[in-house]
Amino acid sequence: MSSKRSAPPTPGSSEKKRKVLSLAEKMDVLAVIDSGLGWSATGKKFGLHEATVRTIWKTREKIRQSVRESADVSSKVASVSRRDPLLEKMEKILNRWISEQVDQRKSNVDGVAIREKARSIYDHLAEKEPSGSCPAPGFIASHGWFHRFKQRFSLHNIARTGDDADEDDDTETRPVFTIMKLRNLLREADNLTELFTDQDPIQERSIKFKRVVDEGLIPYKETLRSKEASACQKPITAFFKPSPASTPAKKHSTPPCPRSHSHCVVQRSQLLALNVATCDLPTLLAAAGVQPSRHAVICLTCAFLRKIGQLQRL
What we know:
Its main location: nucleus. It is found in: Nucleus. The chain has helices at residues 23-34, 39-46, 50-58, 60-79, 85-103, 111-127, 143-153, 162-171, 179-199, 203-216, 218-232, 268-272, 281-287, 294-307; strands at residues 240-241, 265-266. By secondary structure, it is an all-alpha fold. The chain folds into 4 domains: 23-79, Orthogonal Bundle (Arc Repressor Mutant, subunit A), CATH 1.10.10; 85-171, no CATH class; 179-232; 236-245 and 260-307, no CATH class. A two-stranded antiparallel ribbon has the order 1-2. The termini are far apart.
């Protein structure tokens, strides 16, 4: 089976390679045509067929638009300047310095101290530059640079003081951990443990997981319990009734006692219900505007201490 061979080119036939014109060459062709030269003469000048010259002239708007777009891209690329090498070197040294300060548990590592250290490191590096090199443009440790520096090196736990604290407080808000949020989170944690218990085929593993989660939630449950108790506690003035003199007298009612205008009427059962074991009773009565007699204070104090278990009955 004979293999097919291509016929050798004849001396009279010469293969012509297709010439690809750049945008600059096409613009030169358009400029010659605009000057008044004809299609054929322009083709001979550039070594092109007349049909190619006509095609370039027909697509002149697209060619000029492509030239404008390429010029915009090149100008944008040229406008992007490289970062100051001294600045990059300074930031690396500064990052190592911050890591050393954190490892040594230094308490003065804040935004102000870091910015001052950055300026000193940059000035030191600029002084060590050879005189023949281009002069350093200078460095100002501004708030914007400090914010970008923290983002580049993932420094999110730096203490904020002074101007840095004022600026960061405007952009960063701490979440408010309310009683409602804590209650919802605990409910979700319980639902999560129940979900693992129902879905996990290994019962021992799910029980162990539930035990670990319950132990971790103990401080949160205690916090919720104390917060709910403090939120439900009534103020001390809620246990005192207003004086009869402060209420409008009704018709045909008996006149109030002359001595009742100087104090409130206290119900003993309500007073004993107060959970104020850390305060003495006379102070609480005085704070509420109550002025009972000395004998009444002694009796109520003894009854109060006896109720909370601090005074045994004789």
